[in-house]
Specification:
disordered N terminus, about 325 residues, alpha+beta, globular, 2 domains
Length: about 325
């Protein structure tokens, strides 16, 4: 009976190994991941947002390249983002087919208390007026500061058509604004002020597949962007101190994107998206291990267990 029990032990070890190697617990920090948007399960689409097929696969098109559009998408299940909570997210975007007065208007990554907030079209990127309890990181491709002489709603807009900034409370506060790769203006030729061609390297409206990483360590935000045409990563925000819990007024938050167009436009496409409740995220979207990987892992542990048992038997003999 003792020999039978020992002989069966490797099988038991293999079963445990299979659970350890293949359990979703290995991906516990990743709350959701969309490697394309062939399925919108777990998402709420608002306004003009819709999925569409492109050379990048099925993408989330927040707004199509036409005038006066506004769209948003949110996760449907709230995530915990209270005091000392951490998160990180990675997504890729591509802006294409610009037209009108200039490529416009850009997108925001938003954290909000409501899963359906959407502002109007035009300069607000679908965020302005969306929710009083929200925070957004904007990726702005249009310079509104010259409209109306920089008065009223445009007063806080930096003199840049290629910037990243923080917005709070459904208002374009443009806090900590920075021009991406130092390109302050990107648009069609003859713009005012003088502009780089929108297709130039480092211009967010250039049609490249950009990668964005955002992380929050419980007290500060870090945001980086990468344009493959540049071959280097741009640091837009580096450990910027902020209290997200106090801004939201709740521990249950929804995350997503907004976008809009006005007299200028472009396709605002989110190509993929991963969100984690840890402050760091891998550079590549996570995936569940393949069955062959699980089997190899379990087999390795089973062989190790068998070798250990054999050594023990020889020692007893």
């Amino acid at each position: 009976m003792k020999r039978q029990t020992i002989a069966a032990a490797p099988s038991a070890v293999a079963a445990i190994a299979l659970l350890l190697c293949c359990s979703p617990g290995a991906q516990a920090s990743v709350l959701f991941s969309y490697n394309g948007f062939g399925s919108t399960s777990g998402l709420t689409l608002v306004g003009n947002s819709a999925t569409t097929s492109t050379s990048d696969g099925t993408v989330m098109r927040l707004t199509p390249a036409s005038s006066s559009q506004a769209g948003a998408v949110y996760n449907t299940t709230a995530v915990t983002l209270g005091t000392n909570a951490t998160f990180s997210t990675q997504f890729q975007f591509r802006f294409t087919n610009p037209g009108g007065v200039d490529p416009a208007d850009g997108i925001t990554f938003v954290i909000t208390s409501t899963p359906s907030g959407l502002g109007g079209s035009g300069f607000g990127m679908g965020y302005s007026g969306s929710s009083a309890h929200s925070l957004a990181i904007e990726f702005d491709t249009y310079n509104n500061s010259t409209a109306g002489g920089g008065l009223g709603a445009f007063a806080a807009e930096p003199n840049s058509s290629n910037h990243v900034a923080i917005d709070v409370g459904g208002v374009l506060t443009n806090t900590a604004s920075t021009s991406v790769y130092g390109n302050a203006s990107c648009g069609f030729a003859g713009g005012t002020p003088a502009q780089n061609a929108n297709a130039a390297a480092g211009c967010m409206s250039n049609g490249d597949l950009w990668t964005v990483n955002i992380s929050f360590d419980g007290s500060s935000l870090t945001v980086t962007l990468t344009d493959p045409a540049k071959g280097t990563t741009f640091s837009a925000l580096n450990a910027y101190p902020i209290n997200i819990a106090s801004i939201l007024g709740t521990n249950a938050a929804y995350v997503g994107f907004t976008a809009s167009s006005g007299a200028g436009w472009e396709n605002h496409d989110i190509v993929n998206w991963t969100f984690s409740n840890s402050a760091t995220i891998s550079s590549a979207p996570p995936s569940v291990p393949a069955l062959s990987d699980c089997g190899i892992c379990a087999l390795g542990l089973m062989l190790a267990a068998s070798a250990t048992l054999l050594l023990r038997r020889q020692a007893v003999a």
